[in-house]
Amino acid sequence: MLLDEILLANSFFVHEYRDRLKKLSHQPKKQVAIFTCMDTRLVEFLEPALGIKRGDAKIIKNAGNRIRDNCDDVIRSLAAAVYLLGVKEILVIGHLDCGMSRVNKDVLAERMLRYGIPKEEIGKVDLAGWIGGFSDTEENIFDAVRKIRQHQLIPKNIPVHGLLFSPDDGKIKVVVNGYE
Q1: Tell me, what's the pLDDT at 174?
Q2: Distances in whole angstroms, Cα of residue 154 to Cα of each of 27, 35, 75
Q3: Is 75 within 8 Å of 153 (Cβ atoms)?
């Protein structure tokens, strides 16, 4: 069982690191918040590629680093990072070959049916809009940067950068320079 593996790994981790761990502040040392995708290829890869270590940044993730029109919890988390935790800059980081750029609503509906979700419930939702799929990764980054910059609760003097990350080699491309 996966939970048993996780608990065993945690036991070894706690034993191995107990003398080396120090308490860190809730405030990110580099005063940055990173909004990115939940893609597993970014785990233990994105942060080192950016020079980010434990305690340096607030990391906010969702499927496809997508901000929907109602701005959901992403803006709430960014506002908390700015007003309560000292964040001075925001990075929106999309990545190449994002699975959310290929969402097929019919396949999604079929899989939901297989998991027992009633067809009537699926029919009540615009699946493509709800899941947040997109076709152009750079346009998705522009859109997220724009929504953050334009939100009435995010200060206008906070730079919001848009970056495109390669999960294959770790290279970063600047899509939006928040200083300009």
Answers
A1: 98
A2: 18, 14, 8
A3: yes
Local structure of 94: helix, strand or coil: strand
β-sheet bridge partners, residue 90: 33, 160
Q: Fold for 30-99+133-171, please state it.
A: Beta-carbonic Anhydrase; Chain A (3.40.1050)
Sorted by where each begins, the domain ranges of the chain are 30-99+133-171
| Closest to 171 measured CA to CA, from 96, 75, 102 | 96
Residues in the chain: 180
- 116-166: pLDDT as tens digits: 999 999 999 888 888 888 889 999 999 999 999 999 999 999 999 999 999
* Block residue for tokens 């290929």: 102
Number of Cβ within a 10 Å radius of residue 119: 9
d(CA 103, CA 82): 32
- Residue labelled with tokens 């615009």: 126
Residues in the chain predicted with pLDDT less than 50, given as ranges, are: none
